[in-house]
Known about the structure:
Elements: H1 2-9, H2 15-24, H3 32-46, H4 49-59, H5 65-90, H6 95-98, H7 115-129, H8 132-144, H9 149-175
Helix pairs in contact: 1-2, 1-4, 2-9, 3-4, 3-5, 3-7, 3-9, 5-7, 7-8, 7-9
Domain Carboxymuconolactone decarboxylase-like: 95-173
Family: Belongs to the AhpD family.
Function: Antioxidant protein with alkyl hydroperoxidase activity. Required for the reduction of the AhpC active site cysteine residues and for the regeneration of the AhpC enzyme activity.
Amino acid sequence: MALEELKGLIPDYAKDLKLNLSSLARETLLNEQQLYGTMLACALASSNKTVIRHVQQEVAGKLSDEAQNAAKAAASLMAMNNIYYRFVHLASHADYKTMPAKLRMNVINNPGIDKLDFELFSLAVSAINGCGMCIDSHDKVLRKGGLSAEAVQAAVRIASVLHAVARTLDGEEALA
């Protein structure tokens, strides 16, 4: 199991990350596509090759090609949107809030999988990237679509654990 191998790479001082990584695979609030799609999107957002490789191995056979592509698309699109909309939110001039973004975002309307699952992947990546405007937007769609606060929280837990594992491995590599 690839997540078990990934756990083995985490240093002992980060034992809590090992425990949290183990609990992710047992998450019951999300269906399989939501769970593994969120993991893949968050791994990609982490930019850590080791995390990406291990999570990709973990999701192989558990996610359809369409779901894998949607997770990749969510990570890619949010890499752009989170920067743009975080700027709009943080900029002092109100003009930016009324200007059209002029950014292509077609995949949001046709992600190739259940739209709510894509929104969940996007919200988790937005949490990693720290875009409150995007978090609020995706959360609104998810809650309107019937996803519970607990399920949304589960996706954000996945994001936080995978991000922490990636940063820890990055730090260890820098220290080596």
